[in-house]
Amino acid sequence: MLKTPAPPRTPRRTSPAAMGPRPGNGTPDAIALVQANSLPMLVQRELERMILAGELPSGSKLNEAPLAHALGVSRGPVREAFRALEESGLVRLEKNRGVFVRELAVEEADEIYELRAVLDEFVGRRLARTLDADGVRELRGRVERMEKAAARNDVDDYVAANLAFHVRLVELAGNAKLLEVYRRLVNELRLYRHAALAQGGVLPVSTREHREIVDRIADGKPAAAGRALHDHVMGSRERMRRTAALPAVPASNRPARKPA
After folding, report:
1. H/E run at residue 32
2. pTM to 2 decimals?
């Protein structure tokens, strides 16, 4: 059996309010946090943070009792959080064996990037036709948050803002089934994306690409918007391959781009 993971950095928690941002127990913000979120959701968020931070490594077994004790909750919310994390692609449940942090082979990550590029191109084309001025303004605000995180070289905040940006694009596209599939794909890639974005000099490049995506959508040019999103995802794929010490994809294997 693998060693039980170390407790989170915060002291042992005894209330739901302590599971999120730490405004102080009893404050209106803390009460609002508990009212807006179920305890299993708060446990899920903390376990997700621990997985992405590497405190719960890929392949490690997750045991209900030690985690419940470390988080200051009963085993029920932990069990529910496990189920939600399985649906999001971060853990796997094996019958008669338990719950394990998902391991994603680099070859599978490579395939997910290819699929994402196709889906993102569709989303870009649709939004260039349908998104209104308020939607464009919202996307620009999200890019500004990424720019601020990049200026601080805060990879964790950048990854979170980046993920939220892409999921929001799909939400605005208005296809519920696509959103369901997309959420799982991006969750499975999160650890790889974190490592790729942590490379020196990558955050400004990624931020510029996001700004260009919004500009192409705002221009109302479907082909250009789709291409900007496709190329951004494939650029992320190349960064992932460099992080994993894989050879670059030969130019002959890359799809030809049609002019806008």
Report:
1. helix 28-36
2. 0.69
